[in-house]
Amino acid sequence: MDSIKGNLKKYKLDGTTLKVRQGLNARQEIDFSQIKASIMEDVFKKGNQSGTPVKVDKLSRPLPDISSELIALFPEIKSYSLSNTVINRLDSQSKDTLTLFNVEVSRVPSPASQVKIRSWLKSRLKVDSLRAIYSSN
Fold first, then answer.
1. What is the model's pTM?
2. Do the Cβ atoms of 137 and 117 come closer than 8 Å?
3. What is the DSSP letter of 109?
4. What distances in angstroms separate CA 90 from CA 59, 95, 135, one per listed residue?
C-alpha cells in the first residue's frame, strides 16, 4: 500500500487520498463472489509460477507444418489437411475435441500402415485423440 501511495506523486496526484476497497460491492456489503474470484486468480497465478501445467485450449493451439516429414515417411500421401475440431455428440449432448487428419492418397494404406501413420501423428503432434480420413482418386 505504501509503495502505491508513493507513486501518486509520479502521476501528479499529490494530495489525493487512496482508498482501496476489496471484496465490497457498491452498497458496501461483502461480495463473496468477488472474494472467491480474487482467490481463484491468485491460485491460478501461483500455479503458473510454480511450473504447474496449465490446460491449453486445444482449438487455439497451433499445429505444426509436417509436410516435409509426410513426404519422406509416407510417399503415398498427395495432400492433407490438419485441424483441431469439436465433435458434438448428439446422444449425450457432450462435446469432444480431436485432431482431424484428412488425407488424399494415391492408394489407401493397409490397416497396418494406417495404424503406423496414426501412431506417428499422435506422437508428433502430442495429441491423445486423432481421426484420420483417407480418400483416393
1. 0.55
2. no
3. P
4. 20, 9, 26
